[in-house]
Design brief:
Blueprint: E1 3-9, H1 11-17, H2 21-31, E2 33-42, E3 45-53, H3 58-62, E4 65-68, E5 74-76, H4 77-80, E6 81-87, H5 115-130, H6 146-175, H7 178-202, H8 208-221, H9 223-242, H10 251-277, H11 287-312, H12 314-322, H13 334-352, H14 354-366, H15 369-374, H16 400-415
Antiparallel strand pairs: 1-6, 2-3, 4-5
Helix pairs in contact: 6-7, 6-8, 7-9, 7-11, 7-12, 8-11, 9-10, 10-11
């Protein structure tokens, strides 16, 4: 309940003293405020003078002067009205399930706090509060964001696992060597774990945006490892062709792996570093945009940075230990053979007609101008939370009693819908 000072006017006294309602309003407004009084110089310093005249008690209101009456007697507010403390006029109604009016409340979370943790703390506090409530009084939760948060994180976590599996299958399919594919696959959980570790140290929560950064980075995290493994396969194939089908052993094996890693390692490291730095402009966003997209940029940057570090440290070591035995030739993989047959004519035509290809590319780029000019924009796309918010409107002047009755009727009708919980 909002407490307020209420001034109840007496028309008969106002007529007897010759005081109008406008005069009373002006007097109350003039008596409640502060004003400046220039400065006072003391001790080689200037001090600001300010007169504070805020109304704080009922006595302050009663003593507000309204003017002079007959015989020069001052007229105060208490002579034409009485002042009291009372509740603010009721302008809102809370109703639940068509069963009648209730007292409602909304939990407001501080900026930057973890919504899931706050909701859990509120639940625990409400459980303690229910023990002290009178008989027949209960606390009913009408809207809880935790279910939305849990569903979103569960869905994104499942998509991340599916993405891991797809990347692993693609690596195994194209490399056609299980242990070689494991070299690329191992970098995924290690890179993601490193990103989560840095998130933990920095205090970044695992939410929709931060997990989305991981999802964006997963596809690019294995690129360096795949290129290194492919180059190692080429080096080993070349050694085998030069030594009558014999694979290198011992020091020769490690030298071949080292040469393969040194050949492409620096270029891969800097390419991943460039991808990592590509999200740095996101950190310059301010206000709502910055708070929304910063977790995504953080996690994506951490994951790519970890992948770049693993590409020049752990990956060469794993290649030395795991890329052994019979290494299949590139043409032994049926998938590679089919793709090579499709790719070879296209690349030959492209190299023979560079000007035509550039012209077609420019024309294709030009065709995007009209769709881009018609493309709308919005800060955030609409998100389906799985909940509907019903906000009825009525004609102006509807009384509170009538609004309460209409609200109960509509709530009862809504409850008859089977899908409403």
């Amino acid at each position: 309940m909002v407490r307020q000072y209420q001034i109840v006017l007496d028309p008969e006294r106002m007529a007897a003293y010759g005081v109008s309602q406008q005069r009373i309003a002006e007097a109350v407004r003039a008596a409640n405020g502060e004003t400046g009084g220039a400065v006072v110089e003391m001790g080689e310093a200037e001090h600001m003078v300010r007169a504070s005249g805020y109304l704080r008690t009922l006595e302050d209101f009663n003593n507000i002067p309204l003017g002079m009456g007959a015989g020069g007697i001052p007229v105060r507010l208490s002579d034409v009205a009485w002042v009291q403390l009372g509740p603010e006029m009721r302008r809102g109604i809370a109703e639940l399930n068509g069963e009648g009016e209730v007292a409602g409340g909304v939990v407001v979370i501080r900026a930057g706090e973890n919504a899931r943790a706050v909701i859990g703390a509120v639940r625990a506090r409400l459980t303690e509060l229910e023990r002290s409530l009178p008989a027949g009084v209960e606390v009913v939760t009408t809207y809880d964001r935790s279910s939305l948060i849990d569903r979103a994180i569960e869905n994104l976590t499942g998509k991340l696992l599916e993405e891991f599996i797809v990347v692993a299958l693609v690596c195994a399919l194209f490399l056609f060597h299980i242990r070689s594919a494991m070299v690329a696959i191992v970098t995924l959980p290690l890179g993601v774990a490193t990103a989560f570790l840095v998130m933990r140290l920095q205090g970044v929560d695992a939410n929709i945006m931060s997990l989305s950064g991981i999802a964006i980075a997963v596809g690019a995290m294995v690129d360096a490892a795949i290129v290194m493994v492919e180059n190692a396969h080429k080096r080993l194939e070349r050694w085998r062709d030069e030594h009558d089908g014999q694979m290198p052993q011992g020091a020769d094996h490690w030298r071949v792996i080292t040469e393969a890693a040194v050949e492409v390692g620096p270029a891969l490291f800097f390419s991943l570093l460039i991808i990592t730095l590509s999200f740095l402009p996101v950190f310059t966003l301010q206000a709502q945009e910055g708070r929304l997209f910063a977790p995504l940029a953080f996690t994506k940057t951490y994951a790519m940075a970890a992948s770049a570090a693993l590409a020049v440290t752990l990956t060469p070591v794993l290649m030395g230990y795991w890329i052994r035995g019979r290494i299949p030739h590139e043409n032994d993989n049926p998938v590679n053979r089919v793709l090579s047959r499709l790719y070879q004519p296209a690349i030959d035509f492209t190299l023979l007609n560079p000007r035509l290809i550039l012209l077609v590319a420019l024309l294709a780029f030009a065709t995007t101008a009209w769709p881009l000019s018609r493309l709308g924009g919005e800060f955030m796309p609409m998100m389906d939370e799985g909940d509907l918010l019903y906000m009825p409107t009525a004609l102006p002047g509807l009384s509170a009693a009538e609004a309460s009755e209409l609200l109960q009727q509509t709530d009862r009708l809504i409850r008859t819908v089977p899908e409403v919980e």
